[in-house]
Specification:
- The chain is mostly helical.
- The chain has two domains: 1-27, no CATH class; 31-147, no CATH class.
- Helices cover 72% and strands 5% of the residues.
- Strands 1-2 form a two-stranded antiparallel sheet.
- Helix 2 (33-53) runs antiparallel to helix 3.
- The two termini are 22 Å apart.
Length: 151
Amino acid sequence: MCARCAVLTPVGYRCRECVRGQQAVFETTKAFDYPVAAVVAGVGTALGAALLGSLGFWGFLLAPVVGGGLGEVVRWAVGRRRSRYLARWAAVGAALGMLPLLAFPVVGLLMTLGTADAGLLGGTLLAAAFPAIYGALMISALYYRLKGIRL
């Protein structure tokens, strides 16, 4: 093994082919697991953000917990199979699931831009910001929960 072929692992240097062979053991997902993870994460994030919206400011504290729980639901839905790309698919699905919740406040914000009432504009801006922040907190917790072992 030459210096160019050596890969540093936690147990020492190994050749690239050995590392690839070991990583293939950890890739256990099937092709349909990725869309399942995206759909489950999208629906779960939308429901979670809608429920957290009823808690107001306290929802910020619970959003990462909901995101971590959602990560476990996604893991259960794919049969606990692993892949280095599963977390990305779930995060994209969760972001797409947040779009309907963000669309209504943004449309409301655009409609109030023409008015001169600053209070109405501020309230609409907060109504648009809260679901976005809930979603960002849940998606980040979901992503890092599913990321798990670095491959």
